[in-house]
Design goal:
Strand order of the largest sheet: 3-2-1-4-5-6-7-8
Helix content: 40-55%
Distance between the termini: 34 Å
Shape: elongated
Length: about 270
């Protein structure tokens, strides 16, 4: 498929609308090449203001799209399958964002082998900083992979991973923003307890984490090496690190991520 392919979103909640905005802002498609079906009025005016065609007919999206993104909840999929199944064409690429849904189940439900896959994006997609994982089936070409990745890289970063790692992705990047927010809140609480205003505390914490994340991504250095660079002998940072270690900080993080992974596996059965 080339630059002129049409993308259709079936369902468009917070995650779907973040994807739409990212794809449009990056110039991956023009608004006339993107169509969205929504059963509710939520976000409809916002999407129309972007120049996107918004309708209520899922079948119409299936008819008109080269790439179909199933951006609905898992419990809504059976109904959607029933509405679009007879309109699926052999060369369409289908992507599902529903949690716990396998590639094979989408293939079987739609009788289509061109399933680009299931994806897992996290909530920072809403600010163009998502980490998205995409699993594809064997029938997707390298050209199609590049096309889909270009869409999902437009609102953050995206990688193709084996489907067997999708539950790991859920724990590592899907659930973990909540863990990071807890960490940020706790850091801010400590600063507030010592006399700093909460607005300042959140600003200092937010920018500090943004800078630390950028250092990790842009330098390619091991996080342990970056940590060591901040820890002067006998200094304030190593004192704090030792206190966190004594409280089981790392073990708690490992346990939290692992618990999310195990829950995802349980839900996927």
């Amino acid at each position: 498929m080339g630059r002129e392919c049409k993308i259709g979103f079936i369902g468009c909640g917070n995650m779907g609308s973040a994807m739409v905005k990212g794809i449009l802002s990056a110039g991956k498609v023009i608004p006339s090449e993107l169509i969205v079906s929504k059963k509710t009025a939520n976000k409809t005016d916002e999407l129309k203001a972007l120049g996107v065609t918004v309708i209520s007919d899922n079948a119409e999206v299936a008819k008109k799209s080269d790439v179909i993104v199933l951006a609905v909840k898992p419990y809504q999929l059976d109904e959607v399958y029933g509405e679009i199944r007879e309109h699926i064409k052999a060369d369409q690429i289908i992507v599902s964002i529903a949690a716990g849904v396998s590639l094979s189940s989408v293939e079987q439900a739609l009788m289509s082998m061109e399933v680009a896959g299931k994806i897992k994006a996290n909530t920072p997609a809403q600010v163009g900083e998502a980490m998205t994982a995409l699993s594809v089936n064997a029938n997707i070409t390298e050209e199609d992979e590049r096309l889909i990745l270009s869409y999902f890289n437009s609102f953050g970063k995206a990688e193709i991973v084996p489907e067997s790692l999708m539950d790991v992705v859920t724990g590592l990047s899907g659930s973990s923003p909540a863990f990071v927010y807890m960490f940020m809140e706790a850091m801010a609480d400590a600063a507030v307890a010592e006399g700093m205003t909460r607005s300042w505390a959140y600003k200092f914490v937010g920018q500090t984490l943004r800078g630390a994340a950028t250092m990790l991504l842009e330098t390619g250095k091991h996080p342990g090496e970056l940590k060591d660079a901040v820890c002067s002998p006998g200094g304030t940072t190593i004192e704090g690190v030792c206190t966190l270690e004594a409280a089981g900080f790392r073990a708690a993080v490992v346990d939290g991520v692992t618990a999310s992974i195990e829950k995802s596996r349980e839900m996927s059965k």
